[in-house]
Amino acid sequence: MPVLVMKFGGTSVATLDRIRRAAKRVGVEVAKGYDVIVIVSAMAGETNKLVGYVDETSPLYDAREYDAVVSSGENVTAGLMALTLQEMDVPARSWQGWQVPVKTTSAHSQARIEDIVPDNIRAKFAEGMRVAVVAGFQGVSPEGRITTLGRGGSDTTAVAFAAAFQAERCDIYTDVDGVYTTDPRICDKARKLDRIAFEEMLELASLGAKVLQTRSVELAMRYNVKLRVLSSFEEQSDTAGTLVCAEEDIMESKVVNGVAYSRDEAKMTLVSVADRPGIAAAIFGPLSEAGVNVDMIIQNISEEGRTDMTFSCPTDQVARAEKALHDAKARGEINFHDLIADTNVAKVSAVGIGMRSQSGVAARMFKTLSDEGINIKVIATSEIKISVLIDRKYMELAVQALHDAFALEKTG
Ligand code: ADP
Ligand code: ASP
Ligand code: MG
Questions:
Q1: pLDDT tens, the chain, 412 aa long
Q2: What global pTM score does this model have?
Q3: Residue 152 CB less than 6 A away from ligand 1
Q4: C-beta separation of 13 from 41 below 8 A
Q5: Annotated binding site for substrate
Q6: Is the CB of 212 under 6 A from ligand 2?
Q7: Residue 241 CB less than 6 A away from ligand 1
Q8: What's the CA gap between 372 and 78, in Å, rounded?
Q9: Which residues surround ligand 3, an ion (CB under 5 A)?
């Protein structure tokens, strides 16, 4: 029988009532003749609560134990979803990541899926089970420890299952009815897109649009998974939501198709480091070993052989970054006068594949921000995106102004 993957995010399984609603949707697909793999997230707020417990217990935690704790939210929903389906007379059972198994790397708290062994679930489908409910976000390392895939990782679980089972489609059910030109929660002029190209979705996701986890888009692109984002609260239909697809399948496109933001950014500056060959490696090597995800980097001009080095990273990695840099200083590998962390910044980005062939986008973006009196602290560009770091208090304003400037609310 054809396989369908249906993923339900936190708000879609936030209460027993919502789990029942989600289960009914699954029942509809089962009745159409699909064997269904349901991927569930933890109930809304649960993962944050678990992360809070870990932070309070041990600020620079052992990531293996972090994973043991934060993966547990998904186990509850998987069991409850299976029970709900059974109550509806749909043959279903739950699976935790290690039971499938979902094999991952050992990079705890941000592990990557290496392999999904489909045999156990296939055997159960062959015996008449119609729904495999799988706990999203988790897997097992080669050492046999529980891993998690990074925040929002259930999306990636879903796409990886769709690829492993050659599913007809991977439907991501969430609390918005598709992918928008920007987050509809902070810009009421945001427009829903019927289709979005993999490349653009990849950029938007990696720049903060949390509607899909970045890695899920990467996998969908690589394995050509038919990926759809839709609301779990609206009428079910085969054409609802947004289809994430190849660039060739999109009829109309603008220069900029989306604006993304990332609220929890921090800007760190190493004041007065020696400007010598190898200095960047001496700084960013230890940061990478400490698991700090460095994003933007700028090195100021050098004066008398010394320079300032600025980089951005997620706010919750500042403590780790500080420790790594102070340790490197203590070992004599680097030398700096001061380390300043600015945790009140946000990143705002404009994304569009049209930028490849059209110039002037950066100029328009900078002019728009300047008209609003917003100071740009750091700039980064790539082929299809421009990002700026600004004071967090201007983030919403910047998103709305850019959405207007690039005429994203209008069609055509
Ligand atoms: P889930 O719990 O279902 O995984 P998430 O909260 O992870 O849901 O992702 C959905 C949220 O993503 C939406 O509620 C919305 O606020 C946010 N979002 C950010 N950017 C966008 C965008 N461009 N389009 C749609 N939603 C977006
Ligand atoms: N529950 C996890 C999180 O909140 C995974 C997910 O929802 O995708 O990050
Ligand atoms: Mg999510």
A1: 899 999 999 999 999 999 999 999 999 999 999 999 999 999 999 999 999 999 999 988 899 999 999 999 999 999 999 999 999 999 999 999 999 999 999 999 999 999 999 999 999 999 999 999 999 999 999 999 999 999 999 999 999 999 999 999 999 999 999 999 999 999 999 999 999 999 999 999 999 999 999 999 999 999 999 999 999 998 877 778 999 999 889 887 789 999 999 999 999 999 999 999 999 999 999 999 998 999 999 998 888 899 999 999 999 999 999 999 999 999 999 999 999 999 999 999 999 999 998 889 999 999 999 999 999 999 999 999 999 999 999 999 999 999 999 999 965 4
A2: 0.93
A3: yes
A4: yes
A5: 47, 74
A6: no
A7: no
A8: 47
A9: 9, 152
Ligand nearest to the CA of 156: 2
State the Cα–Cα distance between residues 297 and 277, nearest whole angstrom: 17
Residue 9: what residue type? G
Both 12 and 149 in one domain: the answer is yes
Domain that holds residue 40: 3-175
Domain closes at, from 121, 150, 175: 175
Residue 150 CA to ligand 1 center (angstroms) comes to 16
Ligand 3 centre from 299 Cα, in Å?
34
CATH number at residue 143: 3.40.1160.10
Ligand 1 proximity of 182 Cβ (cutoff 6 Å): yes
The residues facing 244 across adjacent strands are: 196, 227
Q: Indicate which CATH number applies to the domain containing 337.
A: 3.30.2130.10
CA of 210 to the centre of ligand 3 (A): 6
**Domain stops at, among 175, 194, 221:** 175
Helices (H) and strands (E) in the chain, counts: 12, 18
Q: Tokens 């945001």 appear where?
A: 190
Other residues' Cβ atoms within 10 Å of the Cβ of residue 379: 14
